[in-house]
């Protein structure tokens, strides 16, 4: 499109461009018809982008190609096509405060929809308070123009009213790196290279990113939830448990791909791709607050349950003859001496070595459980209740479904990994599929073996069910405690990422927290979850967080965001962007079934 360039501007650009005319036309269409995401982050950014020079930029570029009628005609057609696409915006959300918001709204509607503004649904948020100009964000989420490139008209503090074009790029090339958002610029740094072994903007190949994402996500998913999985399978029996686990796993695979697609769209124009920004893009500030609270409760509840299990395991490892199931002093020493330093790492990438060790411990645990059950001859294999437990199924099966929802949740970890991968979603998606498949296999092996070995006697702690004593029991307890501690770290990383993202809202650019802020935030999150863990009863925490936060964060938000922010399948926008909204029936089915089962689980837990 149109790029802000230092004079002289015009024929020199044509001379420097070695591409043939057809390639130049393709570049024009690619720039103009990519998905529209225009975020004006604050009033300073607003004033900088909408100034008088934007009006003259158009004339400068058109004059530069006055001798080439073909290019001029193609450029004019592209601009008209862009204006048409902006008329069918599915939603425009404008956050304004100040007396000029009415003028801004009127001018914006005149440009976006021409004479027919009824095709655009608009919500103006914020009351009239003072004359501070613009506060908040101008969000236009649908199809049309590239990031920071859209026909727009507002009443700016400098006095401009009526149409203006926000310059984002030359008609013959993509936007310059300095004009792209930091993450979009990084995502495009490796454009044109082929194969998964070619390094992207992070300096790592896609294969390396895939392996790193797989190890981190596998540990984050299975983490501490593998220890109570036997009790979950005992509620339903082996066959319904496996079927339920497969359904929940496939639902999470589906929604994880949706969230990565939406996160890449939103993240290309925001400082960080985070779940709150996704919720704000489709529902405004209220939805963002709701999703932020749900995600915090989900992650915090998981961390509390994790530390509750750690307390039991460290106590058995250090004080095998103690009458207390969990000694608080042992938990404090283990948390501050091992868990807290591990959580102070700056990125999930730094956790990959520890995650690999944790996954090896997990494989060893699954093998040990299978060998123990096989050695005992699967004593309950002929018990009908072991295969399908229909006792009180109407009340207890939804509880098991909610616990499976917690066991497989992966959504909060995806966007931090996408951010570290510089918006390269493909290796993260493949890593999520591998990690969830791995978790499904481990859950089915451990849960089935436990039910066929001890049946309804399965407890919330796998270590207690294995009845290993002496030195071997202490070694097993230490191994499980280390594994659970390693599984705590990726979940806390996602929680800290979400909390630190709150402070960067309203600021342009990617503001990284200082080391002191990073460590202080980590300390507060670890100590607060440890305080709740003193109460014990990890299974109750798992059930409640799985029934509420997991549904909102892992199922409802990705499905709604995908249908509100992604173009519909079969449209030119979908073919150009490479992503499309999924079939409505699948998303509705996931949301309805998940909502009903989660609601029943909450009621059953308290009744």
From TrEMBL:
One of its GO terms (cellular component) is membrane. InterPro entries: AA_transpt_TM. GO terms for molecular function: L-amino acid transmembrane transporter activity. It holds the Pfam family Aa_trans. Residues 164-205 are annotated as: Disordered. It is a multi-pass membrane protein. Residues 173-183 have a biased composition (Polar residues). The chain crosses the membrane at residues 209-235, 241-262, 290-309, 329-348, 360-378, 398-419, 431-455, 475-495, 515-535, 541-563, 584-606. This is Amino acid transporter transmembrane domain-containing protein. Its main location: membrane. It comes from Pycnococcus provasolii. Signal peptide: none annotated. PANTHER family: AMINO ACID TRANSPORTER, AMINO ACID TRANSPORTER PROTEIN. Keywords: Amino-acid transport, Membrane, Transmembrane, Transmembrane helix, Transport. It is found in: Membrane. Residues 212-598 form the Amino acid transporter transmembrane domain.
